[in-house]
Every structure is written in C-alpha cells, then in structure tokens.
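THIF-type NAD/FAD binding fold domain-containing protein (Lasiosphaeria miniovina), 509 aa
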Amino acid sequence: MASFTSSPKLQLAATAVVSAAVAAGALLTYQRLQHDERLYRLKRSIPEPKANDSLIQPVTSTGPLPRPDKEDEHNQLLAQRAQSGDFDDELILEQLARNRVFLGRDGLDKLRGAFVVVVGCGGVGSHATAALARSGVSRIRLVDFDQVTLSSLNRHAVATLADVGLSKVQCLQRRLMAVTPWVRFDMRLQKFDGRSAPSLLAGWEGSDSQKPDFVIDAIDNIDSKVELLKYCWDHGLPVISSMGAGTKSDPTRIMVGDIGTSTDDGLSRATRRCLKLLGVTSGIPVVYSTEKMGDGKAALVPLPDDEFEKGSVGDLGPLPDFRVRILPVLGTMPAVFGYTVANHVILKITGYPLDYVPGKARSKMYDGILAFVQSVEESLVREHYGRASNLSVGLKVPLTHGDIAFLVEEVYRGRSVLTGIPTKLVLVRWQKPPRGSTLVRIAAGTNDTEQRSSDVRLRDLVVMTKDEAARHQKEVLQGDKVPGELYDAAVVAKVEARQKEVEAYEHYR
C-alpha cells in the first residue's frame, strides 16, 4: 500500500481540505470584524452622556437634560411657569374639555388632584403615563432604572432617536412637559424591590396624607412584580397590574379582571402562583390577554443550553435577578395594555361606573366544576354513611372559584392530568378516602341545625375530563382499585409532584 506522502491524490485532497478550512476561518473572521465594526459605529452614533447626565449619577437621581435644544428650553420655562401657578387655568380646562364633559366637573377635579405612581416606564408604562398626563392627573411618580434603547422605539409612547441613552423616566418628563406643562413628575431612577418599596410608594413629597391614589405595575420582571403587588396588598394601596404583552397579537382578547382570573402567558401564571403562595389570591385587578399560543405565532425562545453552562443565568442580565431574554413584542400591544391600565385608573379615581364583563365564560366553567365536586362528595358521603342517610343533604364543599382557578389553570395548566385534553374539565379526588373520613360535622344535633361539610383538600383533587373522572370515580373512589393500577408511573409521579406544590399553597389559605 502506498504511503500518504507518496500518494499525489491524497496530498491534493489534504491540501484542498486545509485550504477550505483556512478560507472558511478567514470568512468567519471577516464577518465577525464587519459585525463588530457595525456595532461600534452604531454605539458611536448614540450621543454620549455629559458629566451632568443622570446616567452617570447615583441611581436615585436624575440631572439636567443632556444637550437640551431650543424646544427643550422653551418647554422647561413653560413648565416652570405652569407649576408655579403662572398659567391660565382656563387654558388647562380647555385642553381637558372633552374629559370634563365625559367625567363631569367633580370627576375631573378628582383626577386633577390625583397622585399616581407608575412602576416600569417601558412600552406599557409609557403609554399609561402619557394617557394619565393628557387626561388631567397632575402628580405622577415615575419609577424605572432603565434607559431608552434603539429597540425601545418600536413600543415606547414618546421616545425618539434623540432620547436613546436617556433614562426612561427623564424621557417621559422631557416629552410630556411639552404637552402638559402643569404636570409634576417625580422621577425615580431606581429598580423597584422590597427594600425600596417604602420610599418609592411613599406619599407625595413625603407627606403621609398624600399617599398614592393608585399604583400602576408595568414591570416585566417576576420578582419585582410580586414584591410590588404584595406591598400594595399589605398596605392597602390601590394597584392594577399589567400582565404579559409579549408574544400577544390580538387586541380583542385583552381584558381586565381579578388576579385569580385565567390567562395564557407565562408572566401571568408565574406572578399569580407566587402571589398565591404569599397568601394573595384575589382583590388585585390585572390587565391580561386570553389569546392562546399556536402554530406560526411568536413565542419566547428558550435560553440556549450553553448560556446556562456559563454559570448563573442571572449574571447575564443588566441587573442581578433581572430578565435575561428578549421577549418578542409586537409594538402595538404594549400600547393597548398601557391604555387599558390607564383607563381603569381614570375611571376608579373619578368614580365612573365600571361594568367589566371578562371571565364570564370561565366563571361558568368554575361553577360547573364546583357542582361536579359537590356531587362526587355527596355520593361518597352516601357510600360511607349509608344511602338511606340524609347526611349528604346541605353538604358544603370548602372550595372557592379562586381555588378552582388555581388548580385548573395554574397547577394543571388547563389540561387533564391523564391525557392533556383541555376540554370538559372537572376536579375529582385522586385517592379513595378512608371510610367515614369524608364528613365534617359542626354543632351536631338535629339534622336541621348542624353544619356539614366535606373534608376534601385542594391536594386531594386532580384535573380530568368529565368522562375520565366518571371512570375514575367508579373504579377508584367507589371501587377497589388504586391509581397505580389504572395509570402509568409517569402520570402517578406527575400527580404526586403537583400535590406537593398544592400542599405548600394550602398553608396560606
């Protein structure tokens, strides 16, 4: 056999392979250099902050506008006059004339005297702020640590190319003072968290008597969002939360409802779950979308495995524990969310009648699920205490719509635990209860005066379709089989994991 060095064909082939590798490497290097050069030119095209720019000052302060132009100077002088009282009130009323006709004189007066805090001044928060200022709210506190970027411009309410690199709170003030010079903006260039909550949600200019009339949550980070909502809940501050606008495209599916209402995006699900674990299950209005994901629709791309392998994923974000992925966002949707949030705040402050109709279909579904649980529990009582017994009459079930929504939507993702089917869902006990343990009797005496309730716990219940539950009831709850004999190990393990999750929640009920 000829050696490699003595074979001209092999030498030629090897030379071709090496040449191709060198050429490919050179091409990739050239492309990388071109990319770096474009990125460098792009960054150079964004104006650098001056020494007095807020971006290089302590995070809690903002400074004068960098490179103010003549229009900025004119707007600043006008704002100073308006806020010092040297501005004809009739001009303001003329600008707000349509609102005054709609809301009435008293309603507009309430709005003009209101103090609103907006936490998160990106796509949703900027549109909400613009709507509030244009509608008459005269005191607005803006809270955001971030700055305007080129990618912000597809959804921000007022930012222009000249604002790229400027803090979002200062950008809003800069642009809105040209529209509503009488509005006072309290700018807080900070990231909201539990430690900063007392100062960021304090009264206007530190006054205990001028607490926020409303707080708007437009944060897209789960931890900060939960901390804000929990603080407002604990301290009785009116708040409305915007859930995820990312990946949404259908404005007709946007609704206002309670925090326990079903939604179909990850931010909503995670926020509600965290709040439920903290004992907050209802009482917070949220703006959400019922739009479902589907083929061809935008979705959040999973973070690549190689990023996880680098270490703590949180270290990749702009700030510790902040989001590290870019959400696909259609520029119109944050605006719809923001205006819906602002609309709610305006109506609540002015006392205008609210008659939302979201969640009716879900409410009807929860009624049906509750009725199914009731019927199964009644049949178990008759089975355990004798079919002739009337102990099942008037039996109460210790479940609320919020509990049902939590189990169906949050724990089991709106699908049967057995097959993943999302229609005709019910809740049913997973295990057969011990005989005689299904009934709790209080003030036992005559059958007419005692209170009877089922002992069913949330962790006892799983989601199935109605047909699956009927078979399960017959063979497990009223038969002699155990779930492990009917279902495979994967289903049993899934149920056990979900039961542990629900058990943690039950401590806060």
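Residues 260 and 402 are 6 Å apart (CA to CA). Confidence is low (pLDDT under 50) at residues 45-60, 307-322. ok done for today
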